[in-house]
Design brief:
single chain; mainly beta; Jelly Rolls; Immunoglobulin-like; 3 domains; 14-stranded mixed β-sheet; six-stranded antiparallel β-sheet; 33 strands; 54% strand
């Protein structure tokens, strides 16, 4: 039976190796339907449909998710993902990881892959996790890589005078092709780049990374139901040793005297996914299920799926993918240690993701249980996977700006909107002082911008930074500091 695992997933933008037309770009809206070649924006992602001929349809559902069908086509490409600007190599960009889930039904020749290009050198690359009637690329393997629970064959092929992102030219193609098919999981993209370079397959400046459904003279359909890419910057250090002192206005870029260096604007949310069928099942009727996915089935009160996890102190989000056996509301309690942290509710037989946000936990190894506690004999629940991730208060760094007031003896400090927080703490330090002082507390007021003014300051250089806070269960949790901003009072 088909394994239809749905994960938190990934990336994407792609250009077919048979042609690279230019499209106009437009903002994405909910449930956009494309039938002809077209490109647009979906938040931080770019979506695109390209075809030469035949019947195609692509529905953009937001948050990286999309559905597509193709029939009687020559070539068709459906993708959504992230474009880079070809100014950095992958080592400078940092780790690229794709978590994805696709309901994939090819009828004929088709690929499901992570795809992209580099420049200098010009390289077209594929990381193929599933395919239709033909396994690409029809060459001799140069080696293998063991990653993400599987084995990939590595290939290098050459395209001569073929279309590329730089017009018709000759370029290399790099391939990693999984030895066994899968339609959901994690793709550690950077690990493939490293493996290729060890074999002498040089990577250039990164142009794109994308999840792509490609069809060639075939029919088929696919649903990308979860799609996420995580990208981190290297060469940045949030714990700068602060050796720059008062040398210029570089607080927030190179660090300031106190050792609070600048940070990346990227919000990297780390996560751990646990398959429910691998958890310990107990209770009167608990067992495994193969429909609507491979997972765990809990049928009665006290049926439980349990696992031991290692957690760090703070706030975390817990996302459970599951379904009910009917239109009744199936309820599952999240229990960590001996404390119930919240309840997941599923209605209907279609798999869905439910999230309990900002769950406070303590550090260390502890039990995580999913427990049926309100069964009335009319519903059952099926569980696919649970993902534990950093909450927004932990993962995101707020933005801060500071400027002189008209009287030039005060500084107006403004924070960007952050719906994930209850407010902000504002810290300030004058040049020459060793410690920051908490000067203001801003509670959420519902406006697009939040600001305050610190008045009657003496002349001199001041360093300003903020951090968000959130109250949960009577306790206050704070996130990371923003970049440090420098302002001079004359």
């Amino acid at each position: 039976m088909r394994k239809s695992r749905r994960i938190v997933a990934v990336l994407l933008v792609c250009l077919l190796c048979s042609g690279f037309p230019c499209f106009g770009t437009e903002p994405a809206k909910a449930a956009i339907v494309l039938t002809e070649s077209r490109e647009g924006r979906d938040g931080d992602y770019t979506y695109s449909l390209w075809k030469d001929y035949g019947n195609t349809s692509m529905t953009v559902n937001g948050d990286g998710k999309f559905e597509c069908t193709w029939k009687d086509i020559g070539n068709a490409l459906f993708r959504e993902g992230i474009k880079f600007d070809c100014t950095k190599k992958y080592q400078q960009i940092g780790e690229i990881t794709v978590e994805y889930g696709v309901d994939y039904h090819p009828d004929g020749n088709s690929y499901m892959c992570v795809y992209g290009w580099t420049r200098d050198p010009l390289v077209e690359y594929y990381i193929v996790d599933s395919w239709g009637s033909w396994r690409p690329p029809g060459a001799t393997s140069k080696g293998t890589i063991e990653v993400d629970g599987g084995t990939y064959d590595i290939y290098e092929t050459t395209r001569v005078d073929q279309p590329s992102i730089d017009g018709n030219t000759t370029f290399e193609q790099y391939w990693s092709v999984r030895t066994t098919k899968r339609t959901s999981g994690t793709i550690s993209v950077t690990e493939h780049f490293k493996a290729w370079e060890k074999l002498g397959m040089k990577m250039g400046n990164l142009y794109e990374a994308c999840l792509t459904i490609e069809g060639y003279r075939s029919n088929g359909s696919a649903e990308v139901y979860l799609n996420k890419v995580m990208v981190g910057e290297s060469g940045k250090n949030d714990n700068n040793d602060g050796n720059n002192g008062d040398n210029g206005n570089n607080g927030g870029k190179n660090g300031d005297e106190s050792g609070n260096g600048g940070s990346s604007d990227n919000n990297i949310i780390s996560s751990t996914k646990i398959e429910c069928e691998s958890m310990a099942l107990s209770g009167p009727y608990a067992g495994n299920t193969w429909s609507p996915f491979i997972g765990a089935a809990l049928y009665a009160n006290d049926d439980t799926a349990a696992v031991t996890v290692s957690l760090t102190k703070g706030l975390h989000d817990f996302t459970l993918r599951g379904a009910s056996d009917g239109e009744n509301k199936a309820k599952i309690d999240l229990v960590i240690g001996n404390e119930t942290k919240g309840t997941f509710t599923f209605t209907g037989t279609s798999p869905a993701d439910k999230t309990i946000k900002n769950v406070p936990v303590t550090s260390g190894s502890q039990s995580l249980k999913l427990v049926v506690t309100a069964d009335d004999g009319t519903w059952d629940v099926f569980l696919d996977s649970i993902t534990i991730s950093d909450s927004a208060i932990t993962a995101k760094k707020p933005k801060c700006s500071a400027k002189l007031t008209s009287g030039k003896t005060g500084v107006k400090i403004t924070t960007a909107k952050a719906d994930y927080a209850d407010g902000f703490y504002i810290y300030m330090r004058k040049s020459g002082e060793k410690k920051y002082h908490k000067v203001k507390k801003l509670a959420k007021n519902g406006t697009a911008k939040r600001s305050c003014t610190v008045k009657n300051l003496e002349p001199g250089k001041y360093y300003v930074k903020i951090k968000a806070y959130k109250k949960v269960g009577g306790k206050t949790y704070t996130g990371n500091y923003s970049k440090t901003v420098t302002v001079v009072v004359p």
